[in-house]
Amino acid sequence: MDNTQSITRHTNKRFVKLKQSLSDFFLTLYRINQFIIRFFKEAFVPPFELKEVIRQCYEVGVRSFTLISVTGFIVGVIFTKQSRPSLSQFGAESWLPSLVSIAIMRALAPLVTALIASGKVGSSIGAELGSMRVTEQIDAMEVSGTKPFKYLVCTRVLATTLTIPILSTYTGFVALFGGYLNVTMNEGTTWTTFIQEVFEPLTFTDFVASLIKSIVFGFTIGIVGCYQGYNSNKGTEGVGKAANGAVITAMFLVFIEEVIIVQITGWFR
Amino acid sequence: MKKAAVQTDHNNPVISIRGLKKAFQDYAVLRGIDLDLYQGENLVVLGRSGTGKSVLIKIISGLLKPDEGMVKVFGQDIAHITEDDLQKLRIRIGFSFQNSALYDSMTVRKNLEFPLVRNKRNLTRGEINTAVETVLDAVGLSQTINQMPSELSGGQRKRIGIARTLILNPEVMLYDEPTAGLDPITCIEINDLINEVQQRYNTSSIIITHDLTCAKQTGDRIAMLLDGQFQRTGTFDEVFNTTDSRVKPFYDYNFIE
């Protein structure tokens, strides 16, 4: 009897916990939704904070530039190197540039850029806004009749949405250059031949899909970072949680969006 | 510096609060507050830490929503006005934060310009510069114009925080613990500045503090907040001329003059 009661109590406890977690999850989803709606309501209504958008674009670009250059190059080299043995089994090494270009332009460049930006830019936005919330700087903006949401959130989200596609394109070319170096060292392919073979299999849909993907990723990284920072709890712990939450949530959403966009673009090919 | 006598108009309160209640989770912080702030007066709200003093001014400025009761600022009930009207109302209220809340990524000049250029968009560069120099001069810190907040002392940060609110020419000033964490000399300088602001800008102010020296030097009227309600209101002497065991220790444990 005691054992049955204990199991029932334990099950009830777990059920209550699960109910609470689910309720928290849906509440967070609702709040993020409201946050996104607020962004669209405020971002495109004058007065605009153009100077701040440009400054944020510069910040986003500069923050990620070095890491993206190095990572893009390494991804290109390693992907080419790892793909060669499989192709050489069928004597198809000549297809290497095409394979590398499809993989990089369709998937790797936007994904790698988004993951790096989630870590570098997302965490930085989360921590910056979180720290401003903790030190009452956001409250100070609010009580002085200015619009902190417009100045802090809209500018950052616009900056990531505009800059990450540019960074993604750059990553693609750096990765292709890495691939070219590997191919030319092993197969002696010339730059002209490599470029011809790289662009041959790519279609207009590939470029558009890649661009749309990067725009969605950029928007996600910006909005998640801003949401976490803008709504962070008071105290230094809140700043850490905001930064951490920004990275984890953004990366998680980027993977989900990748799957969805690949599925959708597949219908158009 | 001795506080100059002020003329107050007791017919038209600039802020009027009735039956204000606010709770956080199950803890009731404010339990039915009634308060009037008259034109031109400095009202000091005294009370121990955690009694809801800061909550009160955050409700007045619209940062927090009241659970119950009415808060009228310049005749407008802040719980029932649109976001745009609240925005307009806030320009008339200056809020000096306990930790100054200076924007740490901006220089002093940018900190002061920030609210000005966003609320008065048609100002010329010359007018902006003049406004910045005037308020910096008013708080006696003209030399800090190009410094970053991290390069300023605690007292200087408080002064710049006050200057940032003054740049919009507010009619009401809300000071949250203006002397907290400052040395006694700097405290007196800040108290003098609060009185100077009252005289020069003809502001009405609510000063939140638990520093009795600040209360005595700056307050025309004192309101003692205890157990979520104002227990005693009047001049400094009227409030503390009591044997009330909840008020007396507050006086006894403070060193005044």
UniProtKB/TrEMBL annotation, chain A:
This is ABC transporter permease. One of its GO terms (molecular function) is phospholipid transporter activity. InterPro entries: Permease_MalE (IPR030802). One of its GO terms (cellular component) is ATP-binding cassette (ABC) transporter complex. PANTHER family: ABC TRANSPORTER PERMEASE PROTEIN-RELATED. Signal peptide: none annotated. Coiled coil: none annotated. The chain crosses the membrane at residues 60-79, 99-117, 157-181, 207-230, 242-268. Keywords: Membrane, Transmembrane, Transmembrane helix.
Automatic annotation (TrEMBL), chain B:
PROSITE patterns: ABC_TRANSPORTER_1, ABC_TRANSPORTER_2. Gene3D superfamilies: P-loop containing nucleotide triphosphate hydrolases. Keywords: ATP-binding, Nucleotide-binding, Transport. It comes from the Bacteria. Signal peptide: none annotated. Residues 15-252 form the ABC transporter domain. This is ATP-binding cassette domain-containing protein. It comes from Mucilaginibacter rubeus.
